[in-house]
Design a protein that fits this description.
The chain starts with 13 loop residues before the first strand and ends with a strand. Helices cover about 10% and strands about 45% of the residues. It has one domain (about 15-205). Strand 13 (about 165-170) and strand 14 form a beta hairpin. The chain is mostly beta strands. The strands form 2 sheets. Strands 1, 2, 3, 4, 5, 6, 7, 8, 9, 10, 13, 14, 15 and 16 form a 14-stranded mixed beta sheet that branches.
């Protein structure tokens, strides 16, 4: 077995418990959370994840980080997306292989099985070093020189006073509850995918994803 102690009997089954730092180009709160169209009519978004515990079959995924970065010309559900996956360079060959299958929806499950159906173009998977801090409104990450985001509190536009919000999503696809934030920095720059949207929407949360 690879790194970690978690395992599943069925080689095609996967699950993980993870921390996520997420950001997009929408205004705070993001209309997508409420089944509405994105603020600007198109979506640039990144899901950055640190797996606390997890496995795909006998391959443990504990401690592995990844980024799933995408751009869509309209709403996500309308498809035509372009996606870049970045995986922690410390991952073993087995871990890289199963994570790529999971994140491209080949093993089904939520949310990646659903998101994969909206992607027309998969860019080459990258393996990069990660800087990661999961610390509430001070959370931030860097995935090599390609993707980064740093959260900060939202502020009242009149007084400048910090404000906070927690969103509960009983039918949420990625998570059921999240803490909303603003982005101090947020960008992706790689061949085939380039965008930056600091000062927009971010959030942090913990998730459980699987195909069980």
């Amino acid at each position: 077995m690879s790194k970690g102690a978690s395992s599943l009997t069925d080689p095609g089954k996967w699950k993980y418990h993870a921390d996520m730092i997420n950001a997009c180009n929408c205004d705070w709160g993001c209309p997508c959370n409420f089944n509405a169209r994105p603020t600007n009519g198109f979506c640039n978004g990144v899901y950055a994840t640190n797996i606390r515990t997890g496995a795909c079959g006998s391959t443990a995924l504990d401690g592995i980080k990844f980024v799933w970065a995408g751009a869509w010309p309209g709403a996500i559900h309308e498809g035509r997306g372009t996606v870049k996956i970045l995986i922690d360079e410390t991952a073993s060959k087995e871990q890289r292989n199963v994570l790529e299958q999971i994140l491209k929806g080949k093993l089904k499950g939520m949310p990646w099985g659903l998101f994969a159906a909206t992607v027309d173009r998969w860019l080459d998977v990258g393996f990069v070093p990660f800087e990661w801090e999961f610390n509430g409104l001070k959370s931030h990450y860097k995935a090599g020189t390609i993707a980064q985001a740093a959260l900060e509190p939202m502020r009242n536009p009149v007084t400048g006073v910090e404000t906070s919000a927690r969103i509960v999503l009983p039918s949420g696809i990625v998570c059921k509850e999240l803490d909303a934030a603003a982005t101090k920095t947020f960008s992706v720059f790689t061949e085939g995918l380039k965008f930056a949207a600091p000062g927009k929407y971010g959030f942090y949360t913990t998730v459980e994803h699987s195909n069980l």
